[in-house]
Amino acid sequence: MSRTVDVGDDILLSFSTPVLARLHPDYQTINPFLIEAILGRERDCASISKSNVGSWHSPSDFLQWDCAEIASVVEFFSRSVKTLNDYAVGPEKQSGDMDASAWANVSRAGHYHQPHHHPDSDWSAVYYVDDGMRTGDEPDELSGRIEIMDPRTGVSMLNTPGQPFLGNLQFRPQPGLIVIFPSWLTHYVHPHAGTGERISIAFNAKMVNVVPAAKKKKSLKESLFG
Ligand SMILES: [Fe+2]
Question: Does domain 20-150+166-225 have CATH number 2.60.120.620?
Answer without folding.
Answer: yes
